[in-house]
Amino acid sequence: MSGSHFVADKVSTIGSSGIRRIFDLAARMTNPIDMSMGQPDFDTPQPVKRAAIAAIEEGCNSYTVTHGLPALREKITAQLKAEFDWDPAVFVTSGVSGGLVLAMMACLNPGDEVLIGDPYFVSYKHLVNLFGGRPVVVDLYDDFRLDVQRFEAAVTDRTKLVLVNSPGNPTGIVAAAEEMRGMAELARKHNLLLVSDEIYNVLSYDGPAASPVRFAPEHTLLLRGFGKSYGMTGWRMGYAAGPADVIAQMAKLQQYTFVCAPHMAQRGCLTALDTDVSNHVADYRRKRDMAVAALEGTFEFVRPAGGFYVFPKVPAAFDNSTAFVEQAIARNVLVIPGNAFSERDTHFRISYAVSDDKITEGCRILCEIAKAG
After folding, report:
1. What is the pLDDT of residues 247-293, one digit of tens each?
2. Distance between alpha carbon 227 and the CA centroid of its chain, in Å?
3. How confident is the model at residue 29 (pLDDT cuts 50, 70, 90)?
4. Which residues contact 246 (CB under 8 A, 6 or more apart)?
5. What is the per-residue burial (b if ≥16 Cβ within 10 Å, else e) of 222-241?
């Protein structure tokens, strides 16, 4: 009997993400100009590392309660109260990805539809399918704005959730307050839950990123994390906040899956929430401006306002983004083809969370490839 007999059909339909394939390729290359990584190029702040090390040495190596350390939940709740005048149910997750997994598990019945704007983060469609839902992709090309009319046109009597991500991956687009207000009104009108992935909320360069919490807190499940903002992606730390019944079911499912977020990492996050990272935000704003200036005039793209990414359109001379990315890799530059994030294969993702020298040299090579056609 073959091993494939034991593999569930729903799993076999999920391929390796385009991002992981690029990471695997990078591991075999010698000193590539790697502009594929979606993680900070600064290390975890020293006070946060010291807090986690102290926690380990003090014996904080056991399970915590499933919801997370009371002190951490209290601090998160206080920050949400100060930001939104909101007092939701809260629990600590193993990263925003862990929160997304638990949200899909807790909310989806077979056949429930989830609206997802295209382009989208790589895992969204797969998670919806994995837990029995049906992803409904809403085309947001060419400006990548949250067009409420397009979302409303996709609503049916099976629609249950809407996934929103601002600042966005892969586009770097930050939704305007009026766009989020429109999404909130849509959620109220059709009794939908907005699952708001705000992993990059601190990394918003032209003003604060609007959250649907401000407009429809009773229809919002907020997912935030520590990895991108504090240079601690490998710690796998995040939190979920929202309607008490949804949070209760997600926390119940955490008991049978993740159990709890890592104890020593939770202690580190207590310190992270008091750590000023404005210098890193300013540095990424500057890097964003560098990348934009280097690409302007050669590529078509929407100016990013947050996160780490630019999402340029490949020149017409190329059949698709995969063909363009193959040429970039041949020149020792790693970027991600757009079909990893989209139903289309017309754009590619650049991460500017790299050194200034790599931004300059990588963008120079990409422009050379584009001009050579």
Report:
1. 999 999 999 999 999 999 999 999 999 999 999 999 999 999 999 99
2. 10
3. confident
4. 103, 106, 107, 193, 221
5. bbbbbbbbbbbbebbbbbbb
pTM of the complete model: 0.94
| Owner of token pair 């750590």 | 275
- Cα-to-chain-centroid distance, residue 318: 28
Cα 120 from Cα 133, distance rounded (Å): 17
CB atoms within 10 A of CB 13: 10
How many residues can be counted in the chain? 373
Omega into 142 within 30° of 0, i.e. cis? yes
Please state, in angstroms and rounded to a whole number, the distance separating the CA atoms of residues 372 and 368.
6
Q: In the numeric block, which tokens belong to residue 237? A: 């730390």
Measured distance CA(45)–CA(51) in Å, rounded: 10
Q: Which residue has the tokens 């992993």?
A: 199
**What's the confidence (pLDDT) of residue 9?**
83
Host H or E run for residue 256: helix 244-256
Position of tokens 């969204």? 124
Q: Which CATH superfamily is domain 3-44+277-372 in?
A: Aspartate Aminotransferase, domain 1 (3.90.1150.10)
Domain ranges of the chain: 3-44+277-372, 61-272
Return the H-helix or E-strand segment holding 162. strand 159-165
Fold of the domain built from segment(s) 61-272: Aspartate Aminotransferase; domain 2 (3.40.640)
pLDDT digits (tens, 9 = 90+) for 41-64: 889 999 999 999 999 999 999 999
